[in-house]
User: Fold this.
Amino acid sequence: MVTDGIGDVTWIFHGHKAGRFQLTQLPEIPTFSEGTSSELMSQAYWRTYDKYLKKGREHRGVEVMALSVHGPGQLITKSQWSRLNLYRVRRSVSVVV
Assistant:
């Protein structure tokens, strides 16, 4: 969105672009932040990116201002599900500032 001139600053989730960001898949590993606060894991993730991952130049043409992880999430829906695989993404949402 930034490279297309739609926004000056955007917030993205790397997982929405499957296969595009290989080096920044670290937080997607199961148990990556198990037992540790999201704040501490976000700090560690940023330091790892700054020291090692940015050399891979996956974000060419833009400046990465921050990276973060979050704790367990919740999925809120209009109706109850019997199985997770019944869920189908209708649209992806990005925040543009």
In short: The longest helix spans residues 38-51. The two ends are 11 Å apart (CA to CA).
